[in-house]
Amino acid sequence: EDMEHIRMESNWVVGITKTLGGSGDPSPVTALGVFSGLKAAIKRKLNKLEINGLKVAVQGCGNVGFHLIGHLLHEGGQVVAADVDKDALDRIHVSYGKELENGQLKLIDPNDIYDVECDVFAPCAMGGSINQDTIPRLKCKIVAGAANNQLGTESIDGPSLEKRGILYAPDYVINAGGLLNVANELEGYNQERALNQAKNIYNILDRIFERSQSEGTSTWQAANKIAKDRIAALSKVKSTWNGSAHTLRGVS
Q: Partner of 8 at 20 to 30 A CA spacing, among 29, 152, 164, 222?
């Protein structure tokens, strides 16, 4: 709704409703991207291709967390989840009541989510939840979730995860599905294309993990290097194009 109000003053807006030619709620696509990235992480760290039988602790059952839980349950994952919002928990009870009854899904106190023994810890709530207070409590092998700015202090908390042997999926990579989804509106929204781009986060993270290993650097450092390389390459192309355009204007 906020974006629709902004669109009344500017056409340079994405993330609007389908009735206005947009893509609607981006959270399902964000969740799909997170799920795909999570699978890349378990392949790298656990040498497993399937979620079935693995345990995932999901911190936050909001829009993205809710859909991520659905993907995990559908593929046979064991899920422990927590949220401070009653409405979010009510939605979980309504949609995943069967899984709650058979024990495939369990809801716990938000203060206890860091202490869950699990294969993957998925932060899907507020940023900065992975920090010097919480890292010692983690009992997981992988951190892969939807939250922004997951590390309290990147240069401190990143190495702390490495020292504990925990594989970290850089947040701005694994949660990019929603941005990819709304960016599709710029060319005319194509849902199939957006979903395929979100699924490709699997391959992007796989390359980041590979570079991290080959260069002996952390995953977040590898991701930052790739991002900077891409920005530099695009800047070079733009500079060349602008130079050519200037020459052509001079000739004309």
A: 29
Is the CB of residue 208 less than 8 Å from the CB of residue 222?
Answer: yes
Q: Which helix (H) or strand (E) holds 28?
A: helix 27-46
Provide the residue type at 11 as one letter. N
Q: What is the dihedral of CA 197, 185, 34, 164, to 10 degrees?
A: 90
Helix axes 219-251, 201-215, angle to 10 degrees: 110
- CB 54 within 8 Å of CB 61: no
Per-10-residue mean pLDDT, the chain, length 252: 89 87 92 98 97 98 98 98 97 98 98 98 97 98 98 94 97 96 91 96 97 94 92 82 59 52
For the sheet with 55-59, list strands across it: 105-107, 78-82, 55-59, 120-123, 142-143, 167-168
pTM of the model: 0.91
